Amino acid sequence: MTSNTKGRSGTPRSQRQLRVGEEIRHAMSEVLRRASFNDPHLEGVVVTISEVRVSPDLKNATAFIVPLGGGDMTEVARAFNKANGFFRKELGQMLRLRSCPRISFEPDVSFDEAAKINSILHRETVQQDLGPRDEDESVESPDGHNEADD
Length: 150
What we know:
Strand content: 5-15%
Largest sheet: 3 strands, mixed
Order of helices and strands: HEEHHEHH
Distance between the termini: 43 Å
Number of strands: 3
Radius of gyration: 22 Å
Number of helices: 5
């Protein structure tokens, strides 16, 4: 799960939103484990639900999915959105909530973003900036102490 704990408005998510999101994620994993789908886009597709974000009123939830082993993430998300009524019915029976939230599925691109940042950090031009400093270079600390003298 990603560590983003802020909503779209920039306000932090409440403890309840985070807890309900995790509970939905675990319940959806259980549903995926035991359910079979008649959709050809979901045939043989293994999916990881990386995060479930719940709205402050707990009426809407967005599940971020990643198909393992590759595959077209947008087609898989579209197929899951077609089956969201099935998920809502199953989750309504599993969860102890007043009402089950409406669920939408989106592809999780955070792993792609992390890979992109990792490749940037491993570029030669960036590595030379991250390399060790010369020993004769003296850096003065904020308290006026010279680190090269140590």
